[in-house]
UniProtKB/TrEMBL annotation:
Pfam families in the record: Transket_pyr (PF02779)
PANTHER family recorded: PYRUVATE DEHYDROGENASE E1 COMPONENT, TRANSKETOLASE-LIKE PYRIMIDINE-BINDING DOMAIN-CONTAINING PROTEIN
Domain of life: Bacteria
CDD domains: TPP_PYR_DXS_TK_like
Ranges for domain Transketolase-like pyrimidine-binding: 2-167
Gene3D superfamilies: 3.40.50.920, 3.40.50.970
Alphabetical list of SUPFAM superfamilies matching this protein: Thiamin diphosphate-binding fold (THDP-binding), TK C-terminal domain-like
Family matches, as InterPro entries: PDH/Transketolase (IPR051157), THDP-binding (IPR029061), Transketo_C/PFOR_II (IPR009014), Transketolase-like_Pyr-bd (IPR005475)
Species annotation: Streptomyces albidocamelliae
Name of protein: Transketolase
Length: 308
């Protein structure tokens, strides 16, 4: 199976052909994929070199002229390093752009901490007005890229990963997708976490929701699911653990509920190893998820019994 990033350049190259507003801004990374598109559209494919602050600033300038810039590099260089420009050049100036990252969380362990960004979505959460897409399959990445570019002049972040589920699902860029129904709680699996969540919750009487658009957070979808399944909620995210717990709590603010946020831990893993080893070390493999989700449900049952 190809990767989400394999789809990026072909999809956006077609969008360059289809829409004269689309422009692409790169900082060396990914430039080879746009050579042909650059020849066809020399004024709308721009490589600023290894200058990530300029990458975002140039995109904002293009947006202010009426173009729809698509900006691409590794997540650590797209959100973290130029965060001031994301905050001011895009946010403060109300300039729209589509930021498309690669190497999410720990996708390239050999690159070390400089190339890891598990806090990217949490960092964007400090700003207003961002849509965040987290596809879990290359087909979904293609769909959500098109949604992002077509989203007027909005600020959109598309988080691509080498981790992927075995099959893609129909996603609309808005709502959570019900995958499994149960009565003992709800698990929200974000993007590439779905297959592991389904394996971890096999035999548990739990509803599983699939989220590929996490901002805006589908609070209504979560409320509908908890109405039938109860208000024990587990969020399984492929980035910093707990990133969406506040959003889930806000959605359920008028009812008693418990929320468990699972994701990438804060502790730095200095023996970089493989993607699979990082996943297991953060407890995001099926075994680790089963232990923690099962323990969360057991604790809830004990609390209910103590109150009875």
């Amino acid at each position: 199976m190809d990767t989400m990033r394999d789809r990026f350049a072909p999809v956006v190259s077609r969008l360059l052909d289809e829409d004269p507003r689309v422009a692409v801004v790169l900082a060396e990374i990914g430039a080879d994929g746009f050579r042909a598109a650059e020849r066809r559209h020399p004024g709308r494919v721009i490589n600023v070199g290894i200058r990530e602050q300029l990458l975002v600033g140039a995109a904002a300038g293009l947006a202010l002229t009426g173009l729809r810039p698509v900006v691409h590099t590794f997540a650590s260089f797209l959100v973290e390093r130029p965060f001031e420009q994301v905050k001011l050049d895009l946010g403060h100036q109300d300039a729209g752009a589509v930021l498309v990252s690669a190497a999410a969380s720990y996708d390239w362990p050999a690159g070390g901490l400089t190339h890891m960004a598990p806090g990217d979505v949490a960092l964007l959460d400090t700003l207003d007005g961002w849509t965040v897409h987290v596809p879990g399959h290359p087909d979904e990445a293609e769909t959500l890229l098109r949604h992002a570019v077509a989203a007027g002049d909005d600020k959109v972040y598309v988080r691509l990963s080498v981790q992927a589920n075995r099959e893609g699902r129909a996603v609309d860029g808005k709502r959570f997708v019900p995958v499994r129904e149960g009565r003992s709680g709800v698990v929200v699996a974000v993007g590439p976490m779905l297959d592991a969540v389904l394996a971890a919750t096999e035999g548990l009487d739990m509803t599983v929701l699939y989220a590929t658009t996490v901002r805006p957070f589908d609070g209504e979808g979560l409320r509908r699911a908890t109405g039938a399944a109860g208000t024990d909620v587990v969020l399984v995210e492929p980035y910093l653990a707990g990133t969406s717990t506040a959003a889930a709590t806000e959605a359920l603010s008028d009812v008693p509920h418990r929320v468990l946020g699972l994701g990438v831990g804060r502790r730095e893993l200095r023996r970089y190893g493989t993607v699979e080893q990082h996943t297991a070390a953060h407890g995001l493999d099926p075994r680790g998820l089963r232990e923690r989700i099962g323990g969360f449900l057991d604790a809830g049952r004990r609390q209910a019994a103590a109150r009875a």
